[in-house]
Amino acid sequence: MFLYFRLLGESLSFALNALRNNKLRTFLSLLGVTIGIFSIIAVLAAVDSMKKNIEGSLSGMDMNTVYLFKYSFGPSDIPQWKREQFPNVTYEEYQYLKKNLNDVDQISFNFFTRNESIKYEDNIVTSIRVKPSTFEFFDIEPFTVEKGRLFNESESNSGVPVIVIGHDVAEGLFQNNDPLGKQIRLYGQRFKVIGVLKKQGQDTFGDSNDVAVFFPVNFMRKMYGDNNKTFTPAILIKPEKGIDVEEFKAELTQKLRSHRGLKPNDIDNFFINVLSGFTEFIDNITGQMNVVGWILSGFSLLVGGFGIANIMFVSVKERTNLIGIQKALGAKNKFILFQFLFEAIILSLFGGLIGMFLVWIIAIILTNVLEFEFVLSLANIILGSGLAILIGLIAGIIPAISASKLDPVEAIRTGM
In the chain, N or C terminus with fewer CB closer than 10 Å? Predict the structure, then answer.
């Protein structure tokens, strides 16, 4: 056993000396593997980081939460022209489902609308996310109040002009002053600030409650009615824990179809979007991105492998005389085989490590610049290292075998 370790050690030493003595050749051989490993690990790290941020954004929400409205989160077999004819969900349907749908934990009615500017005295904050909703919304999505309170059921039903503002909105309008009880202007109307949310930070989709405001949806309905084209109504439903989601969706479909008077042959003119289905859609997209990354990076890895194989054949040719002398002095075929095999593996592994180091540096820079956490995981490091070793092994095995099978007399004569 000790003899084998000594053999491996001497082979490794010969390989390292060969790489040091041919620096330019070593550098050129590294490029292909470095680019290939950099490409695939960069794609995998970006996809993993995106998935991690998406999961973090949705971590506080029940993955069975249903978004019921006229649009689909993912692809649909229904033609676009037909989808555009779908009616919006209504406040009356929200009330109907609230009374008649079983296994519901919370259900809210919301408007999705465009960003607006908000004003307090001479201070204006632009591009504010406006989120009118019923009071149940605060029990569907996670909210943490820093100051004050959220609006209650009575204020929600009557459409009182009260408002809860995000952390950044409060800072932009009031600086260091207490915003509670102050009157701010939105849509040309005055709203009383009753609460400020704790700072949250931006999620993967660029959304953040820090730059959002929340107020009773019935205030908007009293002002603009239910048919304003700048608003997209949606009903959010949080089912009770432990229920069968498919059965819940089937009941919801049946209730809404019956309420809308759809005939048996009519298609559903609404979409039931479940957050878990959205994450599956994201997983499908990231999976496709991984496949594309592997395909594109595979060409670089292939070029890198051919480069290493070519260099190893040249190395065998240049050191034919030395191989003959080593075998004449008693070197076994295994010693010669391991010597060249180690050289190819070390060359490839070193190129892979450089590629992963570049990914790590870029990840740090992008994390600081974009405020998006890029992560180079241990799994990707192990994968990159293993891939580099495999490339070196495959690229070096044939040159190493050819070197180990050289006849010592012929090898010495060829080198003279």
Answer: N
Single-letter residue type at 223: M
Q: State the pTM of this model.
A: 0.62
Tokens of 394: 């495959």
Residue 119's contacts (CB-CB under 8 Å, 6 or more residues apart) are 125, 173, 184, 185, 186
Q: What sign has the CA pseudo-torsion 191, 192, 194, 200?
A: positive
Task: Name the nearest CA neighbour of 346 among 37, 7, 29.
Answer: 29
Beta partners for residue 125, in sequence order: 118
Q: How far is CA 342 from CA 93, 166, 171, 352, in A?
A: 71, 59, 61, 15
Give the tens place of pLDDT for each residue, 26-63.
Answer: 676 677 778 888 888 888 888 777 777 766 655 555 56
Exposed / middle / buried, residue 275 (Cβ in 10 Å: 0-12, 13-18, 19+) = middle
Give residue limits of the domains in the chain: 2-57+281-415, 87-269
Say if strands 183-186 and 123-133 run parallel, antiparallel, or are unpaired.
Answer: unpaired
CA angle 178-182-183, nearest 5°?
Answer: 150
